[in-house]
Amino acid sequence: MNASLHASPPLPADATSGLVASPKVLVSFPFHERQQEWHIPLGDGCAEALADMGFAVCRFNPIQEEIRFVGKKPLEKLVLSLGKMIGFDKRQIQESLPWGDDQVRFKALLRAVEDFRPDWLLVISTFTYPAWLLEKIRACGAKKIIGWCVEGPTWIRSPIEESHLYDHYFCIHRHGIGAEENIGFLPAVSFDKDSYYPITPRPDKCRDVVFVGRAKERRVDYVKNITDFDLHIYGPAWERCDPSVLACLKGKAIGGDALNLLYNQAKIVLNVTAWANEGQDCPNLRVVDVPATGSFLLSDYSDFAAELFVPGKEIEFFSSVEELRDKLKFYLANDGLREKIARAGYEKAISLETYRDKILTILQRSRIALPEGSISRTQCQQGVG
């Protein structure tokens, strides 16, 4: 089996005698091993929830399906330039390049489907697939193809365009999506007890302010104004920033236990979404991940996050550079209040939905029955969310 595929181990032959075969699900997501720097728990959380419910699960990682050779990038740029001159758009060209990553991924996914023969396919974007490929997957016996857009409102692809390719489609935000569109609102923020938790005994709070995330224009605009604090930045693409910001960069990536430890060590974890959050109801995963570690979260404001957590009592928010600086100074000087809010944030985080709850919602709204004997079968039949 391809290195990018991970199937649930089969039951021993004597254990399957007389049993109905488990429904098969293939999940497409950029999976990484839990301790790798680029690991995002969302995909594993969903795949493991499906397996726990009794589905046979195969994981497909589109990132590993790439061709690398010397001169690939310059050649692609040349072809893109020529293609644009004669009227093709960038996406059309990329999907047609025989050596391009898209073509390689498409072929690998089709091979995985032909080998595994899933009853349904769950595509958790960041990678999308064209209509012709999804039709071939249906021809291989997939009864339903479900999409879940987990990208923010600034994603280059339109969820509305994508949704028409799927039997059921969900999105983590409602920005630009009218009520007439057949798109289910399903935020990805979830409590994940296996990835984010308080470490016992509690480590020293040896870092004043921690920020984790890719450098984006909006994030840089905030971060460059707080470099006089004890700031620790982890994430890619910060190399092009001012020297004062670069001096705070501690690593290009962090994940797994190292990320959980980092959050535990921080007096304040700063969260700045890559897009303006007001009115878009789309917080990123850190809004729950950080409080789940028992640490204090200071986040840019969003209506949705303020519905999950009580502002000033469970987490804290800011809406401007001035407010960010003021609240950093205040909470660094008030340990007792900061820790009180962090404890309340933890109690709220552990009460929130898990990835299992998200999967149950997808199943219920997509009218997919749980396997016979699943402990969640009654819950799904009654309806979730």
Secondary-structure blueprint:
Blueprint: E1 5-7, E2 24-28, H1 41-52, E3 56-60, H2 72-85, H3 90-96, H4 101-116, E4 120-124, H5 131-139, E5 144-149, H6 159-163, E6 168-171, E7 184-185, E8 207-212, H7 217-223, E9 231-234, H8 243-246, E10 249-251, H9 256-265, E11 266-271, H10 286-292, E12 297-300, H11 303-308, E13 316-318, H12 321-333, H13 335-349, H14 355-366, H15 377-382
Parallel strand pairs: 2-3, 2-4, 4-5, 5-6, 6-7, 8-9, 8-11, 9-10, 11-12, 12-13
Antiparallel strand pairs: 1-3
Task: Give a written overview of the molecule.
By secondary structure, the protein is α/β, with parallel strands linked by helices. 37% of the residues lie in helices and 15% in strands. The chain contains 15 helices and 13 strands. A 7-stranded mixed β-sheet has the order 1-3-2-4-5-6-7, with helices on both faces. Strands 10-9-8-11-12-13 form a 6-stranded parallel β-sheet, sandwiched between helices. Strand 9 (231-234), helix 8 and strand 10 (249-251) form a beta-alpha-beta unit. It is globular and about 60 Å long. The chain starts with a strand and ends with a helix. Mean pLDDT is 87; it is low at 6-19 and 380-385.
